[in-house]
Amino acid sequence: MSSRPVPDTPGPGQESVWDYPRPPRLEEFRGSITVELGGERIASTERGWRVLETSHPPTYYLPRAAFGDGVLRDAAGSSSGEWTWCEWKGAASYYDLVSGSVVAKRAAWTYLKPTRDFAPLTGAIAVMAADVDRCTVNGEEVLPQPGGFYGGWITSWVTGPFKGIPGSTGW
């Protein structure tokens, strides 16, 4: 793939990730979001947030209250200062997701003290779709953003190409 990707042409009702801004934008989301692990629904909400950034499918954040009791467990190292840094949102802390005997390690993250522009995300939880059984938005099962590093969720109403595919390192 070339270093300058050619955006896919959006169809009716679709949005192109190439029309998303950089730096990213935070927007409220009203609609159904679910997360399943170990054959159980571990999170469900009718409201959340989307982070929209050029070349990335949206990353969805759910209110902490959307997760069942015992589902979120501080990931090893999180309490000792192991975190990652986002130039836009700040320091992220991680959770393991737990459903019965199934554990998805470091499959969720939050910003406990995000930057001012992302303050509404304080304590909200994002999930790596590739690390759980299933995530849905408005009933549609999402595909995880390619590459295993980014947390975007791909639905039929977003077009790419998406950051994370082979050759996209320089985007």
Automatic annotation (TrEMBL):
What the entry lists under Pfam families is as follows: NTP_transf_9
Q: Quick one: where's region Disordered?
A: 1-23
- The DUF427 domain extends over 33-129
Under InterPro entries, the record lists:
DUF427, DUF427_sf
* Protein origin, superkingdom: Bacteria
Q: What is this protein called?
A: Uncharacterized protein (DUF427 family)
Supply the source organism for this entry: Mycolicibacterium fluoranthenivorans
